[in-house]
Amino acid sequence: MAGLSLREAAEQTGASKSTIFRAIRAGRLSADRDDNGNFAIDPAELFRVYQPKSEEKNGPVALERPQKRPGGQDAIASDAVELRVRNAELEGEIKTLRLLLETAQKREDDLKAERDRWATQAERLALAPPPAMPEPLQPQSRGWWPFRRAS
Question: What is the value of pTM for the model shown?
């Protein structure tokens, strides 16, 4: 699925391109880069972070939402658009929660390994005999006269 460019994402949300770029750089919004180095933003991820723009005062409608008419085709189309947006939001949340779960599991595994390493070291130190204290050195006896050495 092709993602949205920065410009398209800005048009869909009403935010500026620099705002969306800063969110990507800060890690609040995930985006892939295409072969040309441009961002490809998943709409579900975009709408997880930013609300879709309903109408601009002086411009076109970002997400076309026809007027609801009871029992008409416009009502069905409007419901379908709303469901797609909600589905995209939920998919983004699920993706984020799965990533958080994987990160937490990896962290838990790392903490368990570190705990086991410390426990092994504590057992080894507790079971090892204390190091032997070296005997104090006896001073060498010296002669009574400085130039005469003791033999």
Answer: 0.37
